[in-house]
Known about the structure:
Layout: E1 4-7, H1 11-22, E2 27-31, E3 44-45, H2 47-55, H3 59-62, E4 68-70, E5 72-77, E6 80-86, E7 97-99, H4 102-113, E8 119-123, E9 126-133, E10 136-144, E11 147-152, E12 155-158, H5 165-170, E13 174-177, E14 181-189, E15 200-203, E16 206-212, E17 216-224, H6 228-234, H7 236-246, E18 264-266, E19 270-273, E20 277-278, E21 281-283, H8 298-319, H9 324-356, H10 366-371, H11 377-386
Parallel strand pairs: 1-2, 1-12, 2-8, 5-15, 12-21
Antiparallel strand pairs: 3-7, 4-7, 5-6, 9-10, 10-11, 13-19, 14-17, 14-18, 15-16, 16-17, 20-21
Helix pairs in contact: 1-4, 1-8, 8-9
Amino acid sequence: MQRTxxxxxxxxxxxxxYLLARAGLPVTVLEKHADFFRDxxxxxxxxxxxxxxxxxxxxxxxxxxxxxxVTGLSAIVGGRKFVMSDFSHLPTRAKFIVLMPQWxxxxxxAGEAAQYPTFTLRMGWEATGVLEENGVVTGVRxxxxxxxxxxxxDLTVGCDGRHAISRASAQLTLIEEGVPIDVLWFRIARQxxxxxxxxxxxxxxxxxxxxxxxxxFQVGYLIAKGDFPKIQQDGxxxxxxxxxxxxxxxxxxxxxxxxxxxxxxxxxQVNHLQRxxxxxxxxxxDAAHAMSPVGxxxxxxxxxxxxxxxNILTEPLRAGVAGPSHLEQVQRYxxxxxxxxxxxxxxxxRLLNRILCDPRPMSPPWQLRLVTSVPGFQRLTARFxxxxxxxxxxxxx
Length: 397
């Protein structure tokens, strides 16, 4: 039976650790932070992930965690509402997206994993590199509250995100795609009478996304890449005016953003590793392929990676024979789906870039009016956003 060390306690890392421990395999997850309480990019749990929780027998318990549910997605373009997707026809138990702070999702999943004796979660343990011997990765070096540590492992899995130390330490080749947008990320108060809208508001050369976190919105404000210094130079009053002009019902609330320190710049990346593995090391999730925020599907893609990896690797790990051929199988199985999804996101980036290049009041383009009137359009987009191109199932490929 082979030991696994997972770098990163995000959705992919915790899910993979849970599934391996559920199968009786020894697994240690290293998370560099002392807790999960941070403003993550991904707060959407899609029907594909809820289906996985159902297959694990966790569905009802999970939905007891405070959350909001979205049964469809709409966009306000130039002041006019367009229904973009309808999840009511999906072949899943959950026909909605759950909006939940990612820290709540991670705390829930880590708590379930902790019930298995072979699962170990080390909080505050930051991986600083991988151990290597004769071209084989043999574990992880980590900085811990008690000083430097070495964790020996037969398999190391990098789930440490878009700035992964796992791939950098192993010198895996990363291929970057050009991305023309970034996101400003901040909070603003929410009132009970505010309308629900999970896609966003588009006008005046901007796109604003509102994520419902009960008493406040987590706001994503799209900008052209490199524009943040100019926006700061123009001053907060102009920023407030822009936000309230695009989302009128926020009038009077934008003043809560009274310092630029309350606005975080999220650098949007789309990239992929040429090779996801070395002997003894596998990268999945954002460590292998950073996704755009378009569609809010990044977390769910990472979770699908984790389930596919568990399905492929559990028996070889149990038999003590997991090797490069099995790691290559994970990449071969998942890579085409991930790359095709990224290509669709890159097409969306080009459309978004056109919006950002025209600051005039927006009239809904005829193409949008036409496509949203086509029968079946909302069902098709719901399948892509809600299930993805290659939905996974527990214990099956």
